[in-house]
């Protein structure tokens, strides 16, 4: 049918580690270069979680070189996904904070399971860190400046019904209908001539993609100098401790 | 009363041919230079259609010179209408796809007949073509980035109730109330001092108008090279065939 | 608790005179430099009015030097408030036209008393004058381009329920619950780490603040040349006469 399915299976929470990101980018590039493939549906094989976002262990107590490599991989994921020529649909079957939210926001369409226990949002501020400008721009383009300003400052995670109300996701469906719905949406988008759809998508997104490409090294340096601060390292360690306690 | 009415009467579908556009611009300029005229209401004399948009026959099998002349006329229509000092109200009494939608979007206010059979939208992608950046910017300014991104990629035509929900039109009224409502809206806008209203309008729109003026020749060249492609010509011919079959 | 309350008490209508603005800026700067203070709630001690906006007597029949000094003070208020590192909450307990609306829009969050007799908006056009670009940009960032374009051209004052619908304020509460609600919202915002919240706020607002800083003198000259026009002076005198008659 020309549609691929990419199912995230990196238990326990599909965190975006360097390995995950590398594999994601290789897989996406293969699909991108496969002329038979016109669309991709992203979903999770892990119950209750779509993706927990950037892997905090990659940002804690590592070398400058590691931070640079990791951040370049995060950028690469966004550049490839936001700029993909394929139709990209996120079938969000679980919570999706921070980088997991960015992944969903970078698709063309988002369907979320209508479970109010599942939430989505760019909650970086809660961890004491700040979303980079291209996370912010992606978010503003979807929910508008005001909702973004408030949500980013509060580090809000929006439960599914609120996520729909704010336009963070495009629709909610029952979990058992998710794949059927994703396939139907994909068919609707693929009914358009690829060439016109791709040029239109590029017209909407190119300025933003170009902005990161132009400032890529600077953005990496910003990340390194921010994440290397002792106060930030301490915040992240405390956050990881909290997560561990929560689990046990 | 200082209010003019421009009634489109170019059967069967008020398509924006070179002749139509030329006459539109001459008429609008006359009103603009007439100090007694402070507002214009645009509506259609053709049943069920406001305007079907750019005349496809002007873009099919013609010379490069013709394409250039036609595209310059399309630009001119938008520059004059979007930048008009008068209050401009679209009384949308029928469907309004593509260029017809742009015409309505370029006014200060849009009232649409509440008939769900009437639709409006920038559906260029359905024809295999791409709306130029200034169509896109006009659309984004009205419905926001997210709605625009989705609608443009899908080439959506929105039935009147959905058009209202997305903010594509400002209100719906029964057909028999349309002219009365348009006159009432016009009176409300004309109650403001012209000078302050015009400066405010210019503050909101000048950057966009300047952008096309600065890139006008480039935009014409883009149009010519795009429309001259054999694949695009083929798409348009197929679309015209489909329209003919539909009619008969 | 680290939260200050600034209560406007300049009867009869809390108009933003040069004295008011000067005192406002001195007070805000003191709080900004007080490390114990993390948030400010703005409200009015005058019944039924939050702030009536710029004091028209400062713009009528005065010297060029006076206009320059006054306008610099208006700019300063916005630069300090919009760029504040503290959490800023407007507890809007009365009407808030023009500059009063700007003051509220420059905060992080707006709670308005749910009295439909209280209204808010940038109604400058009604007075025959034009909101400067940074009033407009602040407004657009909150309500979006389309609502801003219409509201600014019509000089609309939105009654509380409509203000909520357009996103001009974030919520409505009964008058007796206003202070309690403001304190609760403040606590929610202060629960975030200051550093991450401040950097996020700056990321959202810095480009706009920089734009005024870069064009500050030009903006003052624009104001002076506009306000010095005899036609504008006449409009303002007529408006003041109307206000006087309304009162008596």
UniProtKB/TrEMBL annotation, chains A, B, C:
Its EC number is 5.3.3.8. Coiled coil: none annotated. Key enzyme of fatty acid beta-oxidation. Able to isomerize both 3-cis (3Z) and 3-trans (3E) double bonds into the 2-trans (2E) form in a range of enoyl-CoA species, with a preference for (3Z)-enoyl-CoAs over (3E)-enoyl-CoAs. The catalytic efficiency of this enzyme is not affected by the fatty acyl chain length. GO terms for cellular component: mitochondrial matrix. Gene3D superfamilies: 2-enoyl-CoA Hydratase, Chain A, domain 1, 6.10.250.170. It is found in: Mitochondrion matrix. Belongs to the enoyl-CoA hydratase/isomerase family. It comes from the Eukaryota. It comes from Grus americana (Whooping crane). Keywords: Acetylation, Fatty acid metabolism, Isomerase, Lipid metabolism, Mitochondrion, Transit peptide. CDD domains: crotonase-like. Pathway: Lipid metabolism; fatty acid beta-oxidation. Homotrimer. The lineage of its organism: Eukaryota, Metazoa, Chordata, Craniata, Vertebrata. InterPro entries: ClpP/crotonase-like_dom_sf, Enoyl-CoA_hyd/isom_CS, Enoyl-CoA_hydra/iso. The gene is Eci1. Pfam families: ECH_1 (PF00378). This is Enoyl-CoA delta isomerase 1, mitochondrial.
């Amino acid at each position: 049918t020309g549609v691929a399915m990419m199912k995230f299976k990196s238990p326990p929470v599909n965190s975006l580690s360097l390995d995950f990101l590398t594999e994601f980018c290789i897989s996406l590039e293969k699909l991108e270069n496969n002329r038979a493939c016109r669309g991709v549906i992203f979903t999770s094989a892990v119950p209750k979680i779509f993706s927990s976002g950037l892997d905090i262990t990659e940002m804690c107590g590592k070398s400058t070189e590691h931070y640079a490599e990791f951040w370049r991989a995060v950028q690469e994921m966004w550049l490839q996904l936001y700029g993909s020529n394929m139709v990209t649909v996120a079938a969000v079957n679980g919570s999706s904070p921070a980088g997991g939210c960015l992944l969903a926001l970078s698709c063309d369409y988002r369907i979320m399971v209508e479970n109010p226990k599942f939430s989505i949002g760019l909650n970086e501020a809660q961890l004491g860190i700040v979303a980079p400008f291209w996370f912010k721009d992606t978010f503003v383009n979807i929910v508008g400046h005001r909702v973004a300003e408030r949500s980013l400052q509060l580090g809000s995670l929006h439960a599914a019904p609120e996520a729909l109300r704010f336009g963070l996701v495009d629709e909610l469906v029952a979990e058992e209908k998710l794949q059927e719905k994703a396939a139907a949406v994909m068919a609707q988008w693929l009914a358009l001539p690829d060439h016109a759809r791709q040029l239109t998508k590029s017209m909407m997104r190119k300025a933003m993609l170009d902005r990161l490409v132009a400032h890529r090294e600077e953005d990496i340096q910003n990340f390194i100098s921010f994440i290397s601060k002792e106060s930030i390292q301490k915040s992240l360690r405390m956050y990881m401790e909290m997560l561990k306690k929560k689990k046990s």
